[in-house]
Every structure is written in C-alpha cells, then in structure tokens.
Design goal:
The complex is a heterotrimer of chains A (about 425), B (about 260) and C (about 170). The radius of gyration of chain A is 23 Å and the shape is globular. The two termini of chain A are about 25 Å apart. Helix content of chain A is about 75%, strand content about 0%. Chain A is mainly alpha-helical. In chain A, helix 2 packs antiparallel against helix 15, helix 3 runs antiparallel to helix 5 (about 100-125) and helix 6 (about 145-175) runs antiparallel to helix 7 (about 180-205). Chain A has 16 helices and no strands. Chain B has one domain (about 5-250): Alpha-Beta Plaits (2-Layer Sandwich). Helices cover about 20% and strands about 20% of the residues of chain B. Chain B is built from seven helices and twelve strands. The model of chain B has no long low-confidence stretch (mean pLDDT about 90). Chain C is mostly helical and about 170 residues long. Chain C has a domain at about 70-150. Chain C is about 30% helix and about 5% strand. Chain C has helices at about 1-25, 45-50, 105-110, 115-120, 140-145; strands at about 90, 100, 125-130, 135-140. In chain C, the strands form two sheets. Chain C has a two-stranded antiparallel ribbon. In chain C, helix 3 (about 105-110) crosses helix 4. The N and C termini of chain C lie far apart (about 105 Å). The chains are: A mainly alpha (about 425), B alpha+beta (about 260), C mainly alpha (about 170). The interface of A and B includes residues 148 and 287 of A.
Amino acid sequence: MSQSLRETLKETWRFYRKTLRLVLTGSKEYYLWCFLLLSIMIVGFLCYLPQLQKGLITTNMKDQVVWGLYISNFTYLVGVAAAAVLLVVPAYIYQFGPIKEIVVLGELFAASSIIMALLFVIVDLGRVDRFWHMLPWIGKMNFPSSLLAWDVIVLNVYLLLNLIIPIYLLVKTYYGKEPNKKFIVPLILFSIPMAVTIHTVTAFLYNGLPARPFWNASILAPRFLASAFCSGPAIIIIVFQILREYTFIKVEDRALFKIAELMAYAMFLNLFFLISEMFKEYYSNTVHIASLKYLYEGLHGHNLLVPWIWVGTLMNLIAFILFLFPITRQRLSTLNIGCILIIAGVWIEKGPGLVIPGFVPDPLGEIYEYIPNFRELFISFGIWATGFLIFTILMKVAIPIASGEFSHSRYEKEKMS
Amino acid sequence: MTKEEKEALIARLEERYLKKYKKKFRVGIEEAIQNTLWGYGLDLSRCIGCRRCVYACVEENNCSREKPQSQWIRVIRLKKGSLINLEDSEHYYNPELVPEKEFLYIPVQCQQCENPPCVRVCPVHATWKEPDGLVVVDYNWCIGCRYCIAACPYRGRIFNWGEPNVPPEHWNTSVHYLGNRPRMRNVVDKCTFCIQRVRMGRYPACVEVCPTGSRKFGNLLDPNSEIRYVIQNKRTFRLKEDLNTEPKFYYFFEA
Amino acid sequence: MRILINGLILFFILILTYLTSVFSKELIEEFPVPPPPFSEGIYPCSNCHASMDLNPKKRVLKDEHTNIQLHHAETLRWCLDCHYSKNRDKLRLYNGELIDFGRSYLLCGECHGNVFRDWKAGIHGKRQGYFIGGKRTYLLCVHCHDAHSPKFKGIKPEPPPLPPKVKRDVR
C-alpha cells in the first residue's frame, strides 16, 4: 500500500472517529434533547411493528378514506423542504449575513425534511417489502404516466442535491480550501428550481385526479407554493434564533424581519387563493362543492374537521396581520407567535385540511369521518422525532466545521504535538 | 414472460396455495379471447337492491369476509328522481323487503373504463387493461400505495387492509392469476367481471345469481350479444360520463 | 295430361309442405329451458284431471289449488283460457294450439309481446350457463313470475356491508 493512500485512510478514519465523538458528547441539554427524541422514536417504532405485521387495518384508514395522517404530514413536509432552500434567494439578494452558512443550514434542513417526508411515504406504503418496485431500472416504474413516479424521482434528486451541496461545502471548509465555484454554484442554482418542482409535482399528484373534485382545481399548485413559503420560513426563523443562541452563527434581527416580510406577502397570496377558491365553489354551487362544505361547515351533520380548519384559517389570518405591520413584525415576541401560528395553521390547512376532505364524501357519496388513531399519531411523532434528531446531529457536526473548530488543520496540529 | 416461465410460476403458486390453504387450486392464465371487448349492462328499472350479487361475488372471488370485509360490489339506494346526485345515496339500507316503492337501487362495481384513471396513476405498472378490456391487478406487484383508489371515480377498487380472511370450506379453488386467486394483505384488488369465468365463456357470478335478471353481459364487438342489444334498444347511460373515463358498464331503463 | 296435372299437384304439395315446415320452424323457435318450476307431485296434472268432470264455471276453488289466487287481469279471464280444459298437461294458445309447460313463454308472449322480444334476446329475464362453447338456458317467465299473480314479489335483502368505525386504541 502506498504511503499516501494509507495516510488518507488513516485520516478518514480519524475524521469519522472525531465526528462520532462530536455527536456523542455534548451539554446536558443536548443529551436530554436527544434522549427525548430517541424515546419518541422508539415508541413510534414499537407502534409501527404491529402495523407492519397485521397490515394497515391497524390504522383508522378505510376504503372510504385511503390516505390519512401519514400522507398529510408528507404533503406538509414537502412544502417545508421546498421553502428552506428557496430562502437562499432572498438571503443572497438581501445579504442576510454569512451566506454560505445559511445555504448549508437551509439545505441540511431541507434534507432532514425530505427524509421525514419519505419516511411518511414508507409507513403509509402497504407493501414496504416491495418498495423496490418503484425504483427506476431495478423495478418497473410507470414513468412518465404516474405522478407518483415523478414525485419519487424529484424527491430523491432533491434529497441528493441537498446532501451533496452542504457536504461538499463542509468538506472543503474542513480542509480549509475554497469551494470550486464552477462545481457548486450551478448545483445551488439548480436546487432552487428543484425546490419549486418537488412542490409542484406533489401538488399535481393530487391535482390530476378528476375523481376528486376537491383536488381537481387549478388553484391547487399555486396554493401549495404560497403556503409553503409561509410554513418553511416560519420554521427557519425559529431555528435561526435557536442557533444564534447556542452557536457562533450570528443571524441579524434585520434578516429575520425581512423573512417575515416576505412571509406576509406569501400569506397574502395564500389567503387570496383561498378566497378565489371559496368564491368559485360557493357562487357556482355545483355538486362539486360537497368536500369544501364538509371541510368548512360540515355535511349532513358530519363536521369533524370544521373546528380544525377554522382554527387553522384564523391562525393564518392572525399571523398575516402580525407580519403585515412593521411594529409587530419587528418585535421578536410577536414575530415568534406569528411563526408558531403559521406553522400550526399551515399544517392544518395543507395536511388534514387538504388530504382528508378529498375523500369525503367518497365517489359514491358515503361519508366516513376519518380521525387518526393513537398508532398513527405515535408513528407520526416518531418520524418527526427522527427528522429532528437527524437535523440536530447534522448541525452538531456542521457547525463546528463551519466555525473552524473542527478542521483538518487542527488535526495536523494534534499530530504534530 | 415465456410460456415455460408462466407455467413454472403457476406451478409454484399452486404449490404455495396447497401448503397455505390445504386446497388444490387451479390457477388459470387464460389469455383474452380474440376479438372480444367485454361490456356490462344493468337494468335499473328491474334491480330491486337485494344484494344477492354482492355475496355471490364475494363467494366466487374469494374476497375477505370479515375483518377486513371486502366487497367488490356496492349497492346504493337513492330516492327516485335524484339519480345524478350520488351524495344523497344510502349504503346501509336494510328494510324487511325490497324493492321499496319510493327508491331506486344502483349497484356499482368496477366499470372497466376504456380510459382507466387508476391504470394511469399506478407508479409501478401493477395494474393494466387487458386486450379484452378488463382492468386487472397483479397482486404480487402492487405496493399498496392506494393511489389508484384515490384516482377511481367509482370506488371500483378495494384495499385488503389486513390478511384476507376466507373460511376454509368456502375457498373457490378455480381461479385466475389476474382474478380471484387468493390475495395477501395490503394490496389492492377489484372486480374483473369474473375473468376466470368469462374467458371460459361463462357469465360472471353476479349476472348468474341476479334473481331479477337485471344484469346483462356480453361482447361489445359481437352484434348479437346481449350488451349490444341493450345499447341498441334501451336508453342507456354511464356513470360520470363527463370524466371521459369511457366505462364499459351501461346502466339502462326499460324504454 | 293427367300425369302432368298430377305431377303439378304433387309439386305444389311438395312446395307447400316445405314452406309450412319452414314457417312452423320459424314459429317454434326452440329456447332451451330448465324444467318448469312445478310444486312437487303436482305434475302430471292428468293424474287427477283425466278422471274428473269438467266444470267450466268461473268460481272460487275450494277442494284443490286453494293457494292459487288469480291476480292477472282476472276480471277478463278464467283458468281455462290458459289451461287446456280437456288435457291439463297442456297449455292452450289463443289460436287453439296446445303447448307443453316447457314452452309457456309462448303463452305469455301472446299478450306481452315487447317483453317477450326482449326475453328472446336474453334481456328480460335471464340466461344462464355458457355463452361460448357450452350450453345456455333461458329461465321461463314463470321461474320469476307466478303465472297467476305475476307481480314480482318483494324479498328480504342480504345484510348491508359493515359500516366503517373509527378505532381509538392502539391494539
């Protein structure tokens, strides 16, 4: 074995050991946080096992409502993942500060969201053992006919992009080298339309079903994007604040306020689209209004989702007002309230508020009021916890690298002494 | 697949079923008969909503009986005069006697669309339209994503939410690979107009059991078939024609 | 000359018989049917009727067939419009032709022409068995309709499907 190869191998091994140590050591809060997430994950996994064994009969989904909480979460998370990357654009235009760090952070956040989204698809899949049937070349993918096939492709490409870009940047930083702009800038630029694509394709997945008039409205994809531009940045604003509290990454208030302003525009669009849809449905009042009625006012005495959607809409509305006026937008307390309202509000609107009414009433007019059971809830919590844990660990490694604490030159120094 | 491969597959399946269900199955792989396009007719002025078809279908097609209950035919009841609005349908009517004066009964099952939206959306090609127009599922390839169910405007597809459950003495052992062979949990199945029967020249089970003779079946390409007679001599309509799914399932009224 | 006339007559007779045979074939198109749905032990009817005196009066039957209530345009007719008075094992068509019970559809078809036309095509009523490569039989009208009170009787429906119920526990 040549000298240099052995040296590289040794060094790589060293890198992994160091990384592992980084992940495994931390403050008390860090341990507590990870322990909490791990225990939620374990509970979720234990709930998943019987579902795997006995089938989806262990959930509350039925032939009337075939998609439930899992796909709701999936839809929401695709939006979040898209928005996290789209934030790169304003960050660049408005000079939010350490642009490279923001890119890394946004993309790792997107990667974690996509992993969560994919996990939600996997737990929703009846035959996980046949997952490979969906893969191109190995399986038999129905491309380009099936939008689900499209979605699998774009989501995986997007995930790959969001792993390659930050890892490349971090490795370069680790070695103290300048990233090759010719290589990385096109990738970053490419990830921006990809973000729009994943969300559009996911919207089209619902949109292309004439059997479900509730989804078969052209406004669906624009609404998806608009709401994603609210929920994704809302989460990012909170994450930024946590990070600047605990790490060296210093994001200025100015940047947060700017993001909030952009969110106000997005929320305006979102509400405007909602009104357009409401007007069309209620004014024309065709038979296709049934699902919308079920959602907003109840149908034939069934009104399980009504309180939810109104609370969600109200949350969005309040957040819009909070973000519209500079006084409330530029105060951290009201800003954070607004963010939390949006996170929850959009979740209701884009998750259960979008997926479930598509199935109610079913094509033969039957109404089944789906509500997830505890198994579905715990499995969902487990997946959210998994995503958070992945993001935490990624941050635990990425931040020391970005700050220069964890770098190759350090290693060299250690070797010297 | 070549002929030998298919035969080997069938032999394997028959052996597996023998082990699992302690029954000798005959798994057919009959291909579509040349120049056939199956069509179905249903006389709404004679249907009395007795649900005999539902249970004959379950029995013939080895559908799961309970937990999960899986039925390919659903009979809905509407007030006379409100045919268009399926939203007012009643699925669970259970009077002493049928028919009831003021109601109309509409059995719905897979409509074997010429333009099937379910086939279009399947991400893995697990479902397709056969040359004789039957939309079929390969239960061994379906991944259970249920996108096809979301895409179906007729509720023609049913999901096996759990391991299908058929009393041992009730297995119908004369099966077709694309039809009524035993299914597994978490895959989609559906009405195939009894592919195992019609490709042998027999009427579907629901046609044969109907006590009122409301159900008609035949080859759309054969001018002397029952279904062609219906189309030519009766006032027919198809469900949700505006969706351009082109169902091969014709509802009709006595002219 | 005589031979010629005889020959001509013979020729016409031949043609006539041929034509009638073709026509009657047309008339008695065969429809394979399952055996008629008689009550047990009632057929052959002549077991009793051969030795009975004929009473052609319209009346309420008290001794036999008390379960039969005529609700089929009953003001216009009587049993013997359909059942041949001299041989109960046969039905009688309007033109006097006698038919077996296995062809009772001809009787019904006399008044219900449209339905009969549909029936022949397999649309009204139904056919069973093989439509390709096998035997196919027609159900007789009387398999579904009581000839004496033909209105379709209501039946008990099979149970409805199990309605979906939400479970709230983890089991």
